[in-house]
Amino acid sequence: MIKMLVCDFDGTISGGKASLVTDFKQFIERNHALSFVVATGRTLPSICDGLSSGDYPAPTSIISDVGTQLHHGKVLSPDLGWHSNVQQQWDREHLEQLLECLPFVGDQNGLHQGEFKLTFEGKLVPSHIDAIHEVLADNNHKVDVTYSHDWFLDITPAGIHKATALSYLLDSLGIKPQEVVVAGDSANDSTMLTLPGVNAVLVGNHYPEVSHLAERPKVYVAKGHHSNGVIEGFEFWQRSHAVS
Ligand SMILES: [Mg+2]
């Protein structure tokens, strides 16, 4: 039985016609026993703005800032256990100094910076990413580097991402990965889409950067775009659980 639906926001449940969002809200309301979790690269204020910009259903939990923040319920209670995990090995000021010295690293938009996440914007090529990894390793920073949408460069504490936040959430709720459907569209969704055991959905409008995930056995590639694709994928996995 599927107990939880975890969705990225931008490009996954957002985008397309406004009526798709209303259909999605009705779908979540019909499946009222389902936990609905949003997992996003956005900061908490930014995802709250996003969710209030349309007729989106209220999530039971929000994983934000690419997994570095976790909040629960309508009142958005911070998960202090998760946040203390994340606080280790993070020297924001030094990271900013190092990255600002690299001429190809773009600007930081204040709206996209989180307590444990730095985001730089601009087009990068693979040799740039290699150089970023090198300078961070030379300075003993244990961080992850994620480049997505061919524009956003996220720097986050090592091993802290959407999938580790999701694993922590599942453990705390006693839900198995096999009981979860995860939907996304871009590189910062890769970790949660490939979390062992989960039932993954790539929406039809996914970026080429995650097309290779389609070859994996537990990834369903939807024909539908945005939230239509999420519902299609969820129903596919629900049917396959019913017959297994
Ligand atoms: Mg997205």
Automatic annotation (TrEMBL):
Please give the coiled-coil regions recorded for this protein.
none
Q: Name one GO molecular function term.
A: hydrolase activity
Q: Which superkingdom heads the taxonomic lineage of this protein's source?
A: Bacteria
| Keywords attached to this entry | Hydrolase
Every Sucrose phosphatase-like domain range: 3-238
Instruction: Tell me the InterPro entries matching this sequence.
Output: HAD-like_sf, HAD-SF_hydro_IIB, HAD_sf, SPP-like_dom
Q: Which Gene3D superfamilies match?
A: 3.90.1070.10, HAD superfamily/HAD-like
In terms of Pfam families, this protein maps to: S6PP (PF05116)
Q: What is this protein called?
A: HAD-IIB family hydrolase
Biological source species: Vibrio ulleungensis
